[in-house]
Amino acid sequence: MPSRRPGATLLTRLASLLLLLAAVLGISRLPAPAAAATSAATHDGLRQLTSSNFTLTQNGAWLIEFFSPSCIHCKKFGPTWSELSQNKDHLRTQYPEAPFTLAQVNCIAQRDLCTEQGVEFLPRLTIYQDGVQHQGEYKGDRNYAEIAAYIDKHAAEYRAKKGIADKQSASVVEANKGAAAAVPAPAAAAAAPPPQSQQQPAAAAVPPASPPPPPAAAGLPIQPTTAPPDEQLPAGPNPKGELISYGGSEIPTPEALAQWLGKGSGQGPTFVKFFAPWCPHCKNMAAAFKQVAASLKGHVNVLEVDCVAHGAICTKYKVNGYPTLRMYNDGNPIEYNGGRNHDAMLQWASKAGAAVGMRNLDSVAALTKAAKADEVFFLYLHSPATTKREIDIVDRATRVLAGSPASAYVSSDTGLLERYAEFLATDSSRTVPASSALLVFKDHSTIQPTAAYHPSSSVSSSMSVEDAVEDVTKWVHTERWPLMTELTGANFDEVLDNESGAYVVVAALSDVHHHGRQSTDVVEGTKERDRELMAVRSLSLGWRENLAAKSPAKVIWAWIDADRWATQLRKLYGIKPLDLPHLLLVNGAREEYYELPSQRPDGFGTWTPRERVYETIAGAVRGELPAKSSRSMLDRGIRGAAAGTGAVIDTSKQHPLSSFAFVAFFMAVLFWGLRRASAESGGALGSSLPLYNGKAAAGVKAD
């Protein structure tokens, strides 16, 4: 075997070590598989109602389950609801003149609909009859037996109200004698003793109510039906719950992709991942992204594009890093910068996929209602003479709020225009002057907006629509944060590495640790934490009212539960329990942070010294203070190497001829240098080294 040079062996071992380390880090960051209950909570294949087809409830009686895929109780109830939906479907098909239908509403995807229907907790079961919500919701136990009896009771009442006779045969009724829930009369159903199946798990319970129609082989007639078939309820996009890969049979060409993601395609919203196979972050999130595709079945398409195999596509869609995640909704792209785990992506994609633009407000009362529901909301006020171009630009720009807690509304109401007239800008260049403004309200207050943007003066007619949308979008990104944001696993990356490049003041607060002492009383510890939070809110308010306008950079204020995220806070920022409460100023884009004065000796909502906190923030924002890095030495080295490798690869792809010429030149210089060194040393490179030089060695004496 040919021998290896020591330098080559060292490089080989070092490369192997780095690859092994990267593999270990990659494996450690892989998201844990979502529990089986997560997908069960989505109740795949069952009837889904949305704001666009909720009018179906105007025909017949309905039992609607309002749920959330992330709700623990909804997940536990999922199998029971699925079984009820199947076994009780005959109440719809057998009685077309008085159908009773089971359906559900996903309150993550249909937040506005759930708000309109007064949903305050999940899961909620509510009866609707001919479009009218039944007073009160189901409040019994969530087991099969009790809900089945509840369904049969209301179905029988609705049939009686419509004058429709029971179509069950005598043999079926006889077979169900003795079942407690088989009595259709309301009084009898209420007086019946609890069925024995209540003492058993729901899966083992025997439905006490009338069973589904027996098969024809049993000799019982199958009733004809004129009820609308299931297909009338939209199956929605992503019918199979599968991840689509660009270049496959569904989207084989650039033209097909442009049509799929474009306006009016009819494909529905699409969550897209642009990735590179060599990218560690892409590998880490691959399993979670595939799970998201399954969880969004019937709601949102999920697509991935390999930017190594399809570089021209990624260049066309302006992909500047990997992975890049976007929601394309009717041609409008919305960037996702949140967590890359299953639950965070699912929650955001469900909301972003259901976004339909600005909602209309027609009165001051409607504005007050919106303020109660949203801590932060935008209101685009415009007079009737405002151009359609400006309205469309603002509508597209505010769609970036999809998936965020903030909402967007639009109004031309005279009362609202008069109320906020001082904040409007008037375009007098038009024949009929037009007034408009995009206002932002925070802290559930409608007294006055916290900021205003004037499209008529800020967006000139000479700007392209795309540039105008981008300009308004930047302002919306900057103003969409509330007075205080709680950092969670779902929004941590989105807040710290925000689109507007803002600095983030982070208050690490604990229920247990307070200024070096440990609270043993849970109630008192929580009260102390709340007082500290009030103090930070006061700091935030003072900054917003007195200093924000003078600051060269935007500052967002947030807090984090230091008990729950103790490990992360220690690793990233070196915060220990004895340091709590603790204030930091974080620059997420550069992964740097600054220590802020964190002493609050009094307990009355004043963080002292307030002026020193503000001075430190101002100095850091102006670049006058040294920053600390939130990355470890190892992480910095690996990230730097990965960034350098990625830059080289991207440059080589974009400029292949120049890259080849550079490599050829480098190799030629290297070869020339080696030959020159060999010639000067008499043909032996090693002889020039002191330890191996014969003359030098001869002068060395042994001990």
Automatic annotation (TrEMBL):
Pfam families: Thioredoxin. GO terms for cellular component: endoplasmic reticulum membrane. It comes from Pseudozyma flocculosa. This is Related to Pig2 - related to protein disulfide isomerase. Residues 189-207 have a biased composition (Low complexity). Residues 189-248 are annotated as: Disordered. InterPro entries: PDI_TMX3, Thioredoxin-like_sf, Thioredoxin_CS, Thioredoxin_domain. Residues 1-26 form the signal peptide. Keywords: Isomerase, Membrane, Signal, Transmembrane, Transmembrane helix. It is a single-pass membrane protein. The keyword Manganese does not apply. It is found in: Endoplasmic reticulum membrane. GO terms for molecular function: isomerase activity. Residues 28-156, 222-354 form the Thioredoxin domain. Probable disulfide isomerase, which participates in the folding of proteins containing disulfide bonds. May act as a dithiol oxidase. Acts as a regulator of endoplasmic reticulum-mitochondria contact sites via its ability to regulate redox signals.
